[in-house]
Amino acid sequence: MPTLTQPHELLLLFIAGFLASALNAVAGGGTLISFPMLIGLGINPIVANATNGVALFPGSLSGALGFKEYWGDIKQELIRLGIPTVIGSALGAVLLKNTSKQAFDIAIPILILIAILLMAFKKQLRPKRSEGKAPVGKVAAMAFQFLIAVYGGYFGAGMGILMLALLTVSSSGEIHRHNAIKNLLGVIIKLTSSVILLISGLVLILPAVVMTAGSICGGYASARMSLKVDPEKLRWAIVSYGAIMVCIFFWRAFGAS
User: pTM above 0.70?
Assistant: First the structure.
């Protein structure tokens, strides 16, 4: 497996981290840029997935800090949902660690397909609800959050959309409050899975550091990008790109001889 120490490889990794973080801030779907880049550079898909998740962790953290004024209000809900989040994300990381390359090669196009479907039907997945009692109870919300966290620890693209949909039907308040909870839960998922994957030796340290530097710069640049780019057009461009990736990875898994 290549070590990715050549200047041109490190430059590509920096650009991938930059674009992934910027896209995540504006429209989502950044993983669909950075993850295929690592595979294109010859990295084992499981190692690429682990390295990508660790590298983009600072983006989750910066997103959470942007809603810190809501932290006091959401503390109890965060604790309640945080417990299944830690357990689920740890399980997802362990599942990734114990997945064979052959099985993960088959899983990749399916996971990317899930991600682009989540992006394509983002608005439909954010249901409207009338004021009053939430249609999804606390225990059910914890169960659904556990499943989302398993997916997040294993792959994670589009998990924020799933969490927002769940919070819409299980939590009080408006969208900014939901985003505050979602971003902190995303940090928990990424932190928990990153620790396990780092201990497991699945993360390439230098590529992760370079991509992290790119993601930090991309997160900063996205503030300006968001003023100039139509998020809806960008979202559909990413969905189209993701569809191409699905075809390529399906061919790699089933068509290549």
Answer: yes
